[in-house]
Amino acid sequence: MATTATANQxxxxxxxxxxxxxxxxxxxxxxTTGAFAVATTGAATHMPxxxxxxxGAAGALGHTVAGLRARNAGRTLATRAAxxxxxxxxxxxxxxxxxxxxxxxxxxxxxxxGIGAAARSTALYEEAREEEAIAAEQRQIAAELxxxxxxxxxxxxxxxxxxxxxxxxxxxxxxxETGTGYSLDAELPPGGATWNKIAAESARLSADARLPHxxxxxASPGIHQGRVIIDVTTVNVLEQERTYPxxxxxxxxxxxxxxxxxxxxxxxxxxxxxxxxxxxxxxxSGKTNMVHGILAGFARAEDILTWVIDLNAGSAGLxxxxxxxxxxxxxxxxxPVRPGIDWLAGxxxxxxxMLDTAVTVAKQRKMGYQDLLARHNTDLLPxxxxxxxxxxxxxxxxxxxxxxxxxxxxxxxxxxEVIRIARAMGxxxxxxxxGATGNVLGNLMIRREAKVRVALTGGETEGMDLSKxxxxxRGLRVEQAPYKGSGFMGTxxxxxxxxxxxxxxxxxxxxxxxxxxxxxxxxDDLSAKAAGPAYARxxxxxxxxWMRDHTPSTPAEAGPTGAGSGxxxxxLRTERxxxxxxxxxxxxxxxxxxxxxxxxxxxDPTTPAGEPAPPASGGxxxxxLRGEQDNPAQQAALALLLAxxxxxxxxxxxxxxxxxxxxxxxxxxVGWLRDWTRQGIAVRVGEGTKARYVHRQxxxxxxxxx
Length: 706
Ligand SMILES: Nc1ncnc2c1ncn2[C@@H]1O[C@H](COP(=O)(O)OP(=O)(O)OP(=O)(O)O)[C@@H](O)[C@H]1O
Description:
Blueprint: H1 2-10, H2 24-44, H3 50-69, H4 74-97, H5 102-164, E1 169-175, E2 181-187, H6 195-199, H7 202-208, E3 217-221, E4 227-233, E5 257-262, E6 267-270, E7 277-280, H8 287-300, E8 304-310, H9 322-325, E9 343-345, H10 348-368, H11 370-375, E10 389-395, H12 397-402, H13 406-421, E11 427-433, H14 437-441, H15 444-449, E12 452-456, H16 466-469, E13 486-490, E14 497-500, H17 506-516, H18 525-536, H19 541-544, H20 546-549, H21 569-573, H22 583-599, H23 626-629, H24 632-643, H25 651-662, H26 666-679, E15 682-685, E16 692-695
Parallel strand pairs: 7-11, 7-12, 8-9, 8-10, 10-11
Antiparallel strand pairs: 1-2, 2-4, 3-4, 5-6, 5-14, 12-13, 13-14, 15-16
Helix pairs in contact: 2-4, 2-5, 3-4, 4-5, 8-17, 10-13, 10-18, 24-25, 25-26
Bound molecules: adenosine-5'-triphosphate.
């Protein structure tokens, strides 16, 4: 077609182009001027009038063919063909009687107007026809969709009847844009049926619907108490590993901080202006990774300062500090960057300083910001980049709260004080726990203040009491989330349900530090003044020296296969095959090497005079246990375990030896022994009443080193 059109346009004769697009006016003009041209040329050259008729017939035919190809309506084709034939009739007449007469010109103008009007009406008709076709197509799609929705609704009405013995009326079915499932909005029957009756049958409903593993049918309250929303996932997104979204744009405390995504692939946010959070995850569940994800979100926020207490060799906080402290990363314009967190306490003393400062700041804010509160007519301090919220992240903080140890009890009291007094003044906490949920959730303060809750399961079923973590939520089963980084999350805004955290890679932490360096707020003057030198000097060399000491022996240091006889705790803590070094560990190793180089001559502030240096090989790497070493009771217990030799000892014996001096209870020692066993420091031998613990060095069959 295009070729024909071009050929015609390039021709030298009168414009007889039936392929070019014409509107009603240009179409009529084209037809009449074409006819006029043919008539005048024809008259001047004494062309036989029959030729004009032939040209018109050809034009009518050509336009009809072109129209047919373009699938024009019959009416359009007829109008166009008629235009050509009328035009041709006039031309034939004009060639015979002379085109340059008033009669000829007047009639030609009339024909032009007529053709224009006819073309206009056909164009409108064509437009309407097209719209009608589109509408019909959409009606068909909608009909198909609603047929599909009706089928889903009918299927679930039957299923809920069969499984829960409740006859619901489905009022809507919404398919998720992510394509991973759908939601049903249903009305409960009169007579007192409640949404939680359906929620409690989640597992049976999922089985009845033959959902793939990891997919669930979860019920939650509807628009009022007589309605229920049932979210049905059909694709298991929890199984997939998704890395932290690489867009590190600014966030705010007020708009929520994304912590992961739901089974429908939608992100879930934590709103922490007034809430504290509790994140429970046993070893290997992906808890450390999640803490990094949380710190990433806080780093991105323009109105949050993050203070981290991490008494566990700094694995949570160090990657956010060391690259900046060591000057390893620079901003785009070559300036040094600020650390991704605002304060890191890795020792007991520093943690006490931090918590005392938090209490002082909260009290000072309460007094100093009376005006601001009055102006905003609120008793909640308005948080902004000028007056930022302090988020206190305490790794394994729940264990501190549950500990019977004297020092830890002191810390615990301070943590609880911050939680109790600082809500209105913009200090909230995120506590993580390995699993001591019973103890921690027994605390009224935590139950009341920490309603943002996460349970990372990662396949671990032991000690996971979801009903305690998420009271009132039924139908949650640990087996639904067997993947690392997956589990359950519930907030006051979003009912407890399956979720997964993003995997955050070490290079992303560095990228986020660089990307957010200019964005971190500064502690407001009033608070900074109250915090005093304890805060201002937090990055001083002597106060950050512990970072060097918390250097566990890494596989790289023990030889590429970790064949040295020193303890490789990090390898034991994960289920990674021996000898494999994660990029995270490798990064940490490099940081440590640099900080070693920087602080190599600094004295170890926590090593008591006369304490023998940890053996380079063949013995326990005490520096790896520095967190525990800060605690003399635990240190003494470890010494007793070592001293007990191959015979081993038990919790009661150790507790008896410690109780006078340290007030340590048997229960506390049981906790330590359990942790040491998990970490590979101690080995449990014998069963029942004969069960005892032997230090790894004296264990009957020492498993190969990591
Ligand atoms: N969200 C996630 N997606 C995919 N894989 C993950 C995720 N989180 C963690 N993992 C995997 O699980 C491994 C262990 O994660 P992580 O170190 O965070 O666990 P942990 O519970 O803190 O264990 P540990 O106490 O031994 O450090 C990671 O190395 C990674 O391979």
